[in-house]
Amino acid sequence: MTRKGRRLVLISVGLGVLALAAGLILTALNDTIVFFRTPTEVAAKTFAPGSRLRMGGLVESGSVEKHGATTQFIVTDGNAQVKVAYTGLLPDLFREGQGVVTEGILQSDGTVKADSVLAKHDERYMPREVADALKKSGHWKEGEEGGPMPPPAKPAAPVKPSAALPTVSPAPVTAAAERSPAQ
Amino acid sequence: MIAELGHYALVLALALSLVQMVVPFWGARKDDPVLMGVAAPVSLMMLAFVTFSFGALMTVYVTSDFSVLNVVENSHSRMPLIYKFTSTWGNHEGSMLLWVFVLALFGGLVALFGGNLPDRLKANALAVQGAIAVAFLTFILFTSNPFTRIISPPAEGRSLNPILQDPGLAIHPPLLYLGYVGLSIAFAFAMAALIEGRIDAAWARWVRPWTLAAWVFLTLGIAMGSYWAYYELGWGGWWFWDPVENASLMPWLAATALLHSAVVMEKRDALKIWTVLLAILAFSLSLIGTFLVRSGVLTSVHAFATDPARGVFILGILTFFIGGSLLLFALRAGDLRQGGIFAPVSREGALVMNNLFLTAATAAVFVGTLYPLALEMISDAKITVGPPFFNITFGGLMLPLVFAIPFGPLMAWKRGDLLGVAQRLTVAAAVAVVAIVVTAAATGGGPVLAAVMVGLGVFIIAGALTDIAERAGIGRVSARVAFARLKGVPRSAFGTAVAHLGVGVCLIGIVCETTWSQEHIASMKVGDSFTIGSHDLTFLRIENRTGANFTARTAVFGLSTDGEPEGNIEASRRNFEARQMGTTESGIRTFGFSQLYLSMGEETPDGHISVRATWKPLVTLIWLGAVVMSLGGCLSLADRRLRVGAPRPAKAKPRQDKRPAPQPAPAE
To answer: What distance in Å separates the CA atoms of residue B362 and residue B620, rounded to the nearest whole number?
Structure first.
């Protein structure tokens, strides 16, 4: 094989792998990403039952019910309530009145069957997505119970804390509070 | 006082790193041996000052000096000593100091053991190291000073995040940083080569041991982090595709590719430009990882608002080093002469394949990690890119790669014989087929794909053994001759085989854990029992326990198989008063390579507790595989040729060739 031919083979193999990678990435992005929704959006029934979503808000006080290993609770952003059912162990910092992020499948009755429930993993922070949802619904008040905490001097992010809460990394609340969706 | 001394030492280290950046570089330009000679002593002095500073921070932590802000925020007088010790880097400022300490350590090692490097290469490489140190020391001193005092010290600190109060914190970050930052050496050598405008096979021989050492640490660090998350978080997951994990996986993938391409460069003088680019990319990904984790960008792109200085500063460092190195690469890469032609089917070709797939996989992880951040910045849509994305893309790209592993080492250099290699792998393939059949039979014909994947893992292991057997001529010559030959096989060849074997082991663990795990979630009261993975668990009692700085509720379960008692397994929930937060301590019992994993949920007033038990077949193979991989790396590092190699003198362009390359240059 000539030098040119060799180079041609190399380049075409390289392009082939590149095309494979691009194809995989694009298909996967189409099929697997999960959108974050607020309880208001979910309650408005704009999404087809059976779709997968991620929803953040506060656990409504007094709404937590236990049926064996299954827990039912209501997630609210102040405007709307969505019932969530979850089978499994709840995170250590799951409390009524506190922020929570759930991910699961929307059922035909408008409830969410969650397969993961995430709470903040450090008492200083609230999940950013929850803060954003509250902000959106206009129910964000400084100093509210379960709301903004005193701003931490710094994100005490150790080397790998957010493994505790995949994708719901704790945001300093001030950061979220200072941001508005319009910007 | 000690805090001020630590701070002062850090300032002096900054001054020294400025000298280390400028003087040797200038010396190399002017070809002045005296100026170039400054590099080594200055980097050792800087190492001494950074070490002192790090020691000072450790001292204020261990003595619980609550007049230092950092200690107040991350320590508590009642914490066990080991956690006071590890709190030093369990926070932003301290971990940045650890980062710089490791950087200085590697610089010092190059200064100490690089005695036989060509003067200019060494001077330039240390100058680049100095530049990185300048950037990060400035960052620490101006935005993240760990020694800040507070005017009215509180009596008690706020304690370390309980999740981090674990021996894992003592091991995982230092290992990870040794890997992350160790890649800076490969980067510095690449930059030095580009500054000089010449590069040869000897360069690869110098760079490879450093990269290999960093890779070994990175492998262990990632595996350790994975196991830590597995036992500490109470979910039993060992990899979450969390952005922070991806931030460490990307440099690992790039470093793995670099190791393989450096082999081609060292042996065949080919792929030079590509190898240099990979060295730049590997460290750039380390920097990006540092940026993602340290700047707060992961928590939110808007977290800059809390402390704009910090995020913007790291972004500046990032832009300067990545942009600058790529620019230099673009300007100088054309000057690097290519050598060594090879046929597409050859050892070189196989290593190119390895590089293509590894870089494509890195790109996939990169896209998945950064796409949500980018999307949120340009639109307002919030999305998560979760495990399904990575399983499809990363899995899809790694499959052909791991399948090719056994073929690569058996291929001849320059021109390989695919058919011949395939013939030599028949035994391995036969073993793999048997493994598939046995697995399918043992699991009652479960998912066929999983059985095939187990077979693939066995194929890789058998292929690695075949490589060694082929080299020794086992089966072709008498046993005694084969044994004698086996002793003669270079350690680097053993290293390759062992590392590849580790990949196979890891793959089997991953497949078995994800496919055949059994889970049982229940609400239980004392006396209840259930069966999982042939083990019977009975809830015996629940009791209160106290630790140094926490109280715990511990559920004790009796374990038995077919009536044979097997002792107890305990899961508990701890409550840490200082932070008013709890952690879940899972109970783990290991049976062979499999584990029974038990975690306890909340208690109800009527005495029920929720319990989640998981039977994880062969799960420990995942981490054992990683350990075996790094063992392979160590074996390869121990190879005599790498340590006291005598690379042939570099052929240089006349223009730059003022001083000939020195004689025997050890790999260090």
So the answer is: 25
Q: Provide the ipTM.
A: 0.74
Nearest CA in chain A to B143: A154
Contact A158 B164 (CB under 8 A): yes
Helix (H) or strand (E) holding A55: strand A52-59
Q: Which pair of tokens denotes residue B83? A: 């956690």
Our CA-based measurement puts residue B603 at a distance from the nearest CA of chain A, in whole angstroms, of 11
Do B204 and B267 fall within a single domain? yes
**Cross-chain residue pair A18–B361, CB shorter than 8 Å:** no
Residue B496 DSSP one-character state: H
The answer to whether residue A171 scores a pLDDT higher than 60 is no
* Domain span holding position A13: 1-33
> Minimal Cα distance from B605: which residue of A?
A66
Distance from the Cα of A169 to chain B's closest Cα (Å) equals 5
Closest CA to A115 of A94, A84, A76: A84
Q: How far apart are CA A80 and CA B595, in angstroms?
A: 43
* Residues A21, A65 share a domain: no
Decide: residue B229, CB within 10 A, 0-12 exposed, 13-18 middle, 19+ buried: buried
> Is the Cβ pair A36, B357 closer than 8 Å?
no
B385/A36 Cβ within 8 A = no
- Give the mean pLDDT of B4-21: 96
Cα-Cα-Cα-Cα dihedral of B561, B564, B566, B572, to 10°? 60
| Residues A89 and A16 both lie in one domain | no
CB-based contact (8 Å) between B309 and chain A? no
Residues B147/B70, Cβ–Cβ less than 8 Å: yes
Among A45-59, B114-128, B449-463, B552-566, where is mean pLDDT lowest? Answer: A45-59
Cα separations in angstroms, A104 against A11, A113, B95, B482, B514: 43, 5, 36, 59, 20
Cβ proximity of B148 and B70 under 8 Å: yes
Q: Which two tokens stand for residue B248?
A: 């460490």
* B338, HSE (Cβ side, Cα atoms, 13 Å): 10
Two tokens at B637? Answer: 């590092």
CA angle B604–A74–A167, rounded 5-degree value: 95
Same domain, B283 and B362: yes
How close, in Å, is residue A138 to chain B by CA atoms?
Answer: 17
Q: Is B22 in the same domain as B102? A: yes
Q: Cβ(A111)–Cβ(A84) under 8 Å?
A: yes
Length of chain A: 183
Quick: pLDDT tens for A111-129: 899 988 887 654 445 566 6
- Residue B630 in domain: no
Cβ contacts below 8 Å, chain A against chain B, sum to 224
CB contact under 8 A, A6 and B342: yes
The answer to whether the CB of B627 falls within 8 A of the CB of B499 is: no
3-state secondary structure of B482: helix
What's the rounded Cα separation, in Å, for the pair B51 and B100? 10
Instruction: Judge contact between B440 and B446, C-beta under 8 A.
Output: yes
Q: Where are the alpha helices (DSSP H) in B152-271?
A: 168-196, 201-232, 243-268
Looking at residues B130-138, what average pLDDT do you find? 96
Distance CA B603, CA B584 (A): 13
Residue A151 — very low, low, confident or very high, per pLDDT cuts 50/70/90?
A: very low
Query: What is the domain extent for residue B528?
Result: 518-616
Do residues A114 and A123 touch, judged by C-beta distance below 8 A? no
* Spatial contact of B340 and B269, defined as CB atoms under 8 Å apart: yes
The number of distinct structural domains making up chain A is 2
On whether both B301 and B398 belong to a single domain, the answer is yes
Binding residues of A for heme, by number, are 121, 125
Q: What percent of chain B has pLDDT over 90?
A: 52
CB pair distance less than 8 Å for B384 and A34: yes
The three-class DSSP label of residue B570 is strand
In the block, residue with structure tokens 């902000």: A135
